[in-house]
From TrEMBL:
Domain Acyltransferase: 8-350
InterPro entries, sorted: Acyl_transf_3_dom (IPR002656), Acyltransferase_3 (IPR050879)
One Gene Ontology molecular-function label: acyltransferase activity
Domain of life: Bacteria
Regions that span the bilayer: 12-30, 36-65, 86-107, 144-160, 167-188, 208-226, 238-259, 265-288, 333-358
UniProt lineage: Bacteria, Pseudomonadati, Bacteroidota, Flavobacteriia, Flavobacteriales
Entry protein name: Acyltransferase family protein
EC number: 2.3.-.-
Keyword list, A-Z: Acyltransferase, Membrane, Transferase, Transmembrane, Transmembrane helix
Naturally occurring in which organism (per UniProt): Geojedonia litorea
Enzyme class: transferase
Length: 377
């Protein structure tokens, strides 16, 4: 399964999952805290999810552009695209959903009223996500982003014959949908009452109708990389430095001026998440130049290929189960360190089993049944 893998993208995927897992490690030491350092680490976990969004958009946008290159833009091609995506994402999701339901029953807890909405990914379509299977909020955003833009794009392409015009249509459809997202966000800004970061996160950041653009920024990135490759390669270091400065200055601004969702909602609705997406996009050119080397390359490959499984199991399956079995709060630090090691071992072990014996066979079946894109997805 290493064929056609792009090492730099594997590095970004590994960084994203490490940010998520490390942010969850903090809950072993502090279930609730006001510590700026701990809150910053948890914010990096949220940034890891945004990196996943941009990465997904970059890869899926690349696949759609390849469809355009090969003139595979009829609805049979669209259905084939969807089938490949569904075989990539849905089996793991539904398996972990069933396991989460089983764990809830095992621990004698009540199933959420929205449980059946998890099947069509509607649990957070226009309302806050429940605490059950919390990772699923981002998967809903990705699934609907794969449905909506490609459907509109393929409909639009039925009226276009010239190849160059089709690529322009790809850009126009992406920009129009991002623009519509801002109109929807404006409605949220006008009507929402937000009293904390948690309110903003649950009511806005984790809701599908407000976050589809998180993936579509990756479509813009692949378009620019495709149309202006020399420019992207020439200034890759400048883009990387700009990303680091923009990310740092944005968070210094937030820290020094106490910019909170309850006091500066407009910034968090219209600017903050797009800034993070831009930071993600700007680092891509530098990472695309990386080459796989030795044991580091093998480690990156391991983390990257297991990243989806790790994302699904580390919090709801491993961490929450440990919290139900063990009370962390009053334990001495050396015991918590032992629990941290156990958490990491269980996360890596379970994700490896899930990947090797469930995810990988399904991916092989997918690639055997449906023609394979040249871009790893």
């Amino acid at each position: 399964m290493q064929t056609n893998r792009i090492f730099g993208l594997d590095v970004l995927r590994a960084i994203a999952i490490l940010l998520v897992v490390v942010s969850h490690c903090t809950y072993i030491f502090y279930e609730t805290t006001e510590s700026p350092i701990i809150m910053a680490i948890r914010s990096l976990g949220a940034f890891g999810v945004d990196l996943f969004f941009v990465l997904s958009g970059y890869l899926i946008g690349g696949i759609l552009l390849k469809h355009i290159d090969q003139n595979r833009t009829n609805f049979n091609d669209l259905f084939r695209f969807w089938k490949r995506r569904w075989l990539r994402t849905l089996p793991n999701y539904y398996l972990i959903l069933i396991i989460n339901i089983g764990l809830l029953i095992l621990f004698s807890q009540k199933l959420p009223d929205s449980i059946f909405l998890y099947i069509p990914f509607l649990q957070n379509f226009s309302q806050p996500h429940s605490d059950f299977f919390n990772e699923a909020w981002s998967l809903s955003i990705e699934e609907y982003s794969y449905l909506i833009l490609p459907l509109i794009l393929f409909c639009a392409l039925q009226w276009v014959r010239r190849h160059h015009s089709k690529i322009i249509v790809f850009l126009i459809v992406t920009l129009v949908l991002i623009g519509i997202q801002y109109l929807i966000k404006a409605r949220f800004y006008s009507n929402a009452e937000v009293h904390s970061y948690q309110d903003w996160s649950s009511m806005f950041r984790k809701v599908v109708v407000y976050r589809l653009d998180a993936v579509y920024y990756g479509f813009i990135l692949i378009y620019v990389a495709r149309m202006y490759p020399y420019f992207i390669r020439k200034y890759d270091k400048l883009f990387l430095i700009t990303a680091l400065l923009l990310f740092t200055s944005t968070h210094l601004y937030i820290a020094f001026f106490s910019v909170l969702p309850q006091t500066h909602l407009g910034f968090y609705v219209f600017a903050y998440l797009p800034i993070l997406a831009l930071c993600c996009a700007l680092v891509f050119p530098a990472f695309l130049k990386l080459k796989k080397q030795g044991w580091f390359g093998s480690l990156i490959y391991f983390l990257s290929t297991r990243s989806y499984a790790m994302y699904l199991v580390n919090y709801s399956i491993v961490l929450l189960s440990l919290q139900k079995l063990i009370s962390f709060e009053a334990m001495p630090i050396y015991i918590k360190l032992g629990i941290l090691v156990l958490f990491l071992i269980l996360t890596l072990s379970l994700s490896n089993v899930l990947y090797r014996y469930f995810e990988l066979p399904i991916l092989k079946f997918r690639d055997k049944t449906y023609s394979k894109s040249n871009i790893t997805s």
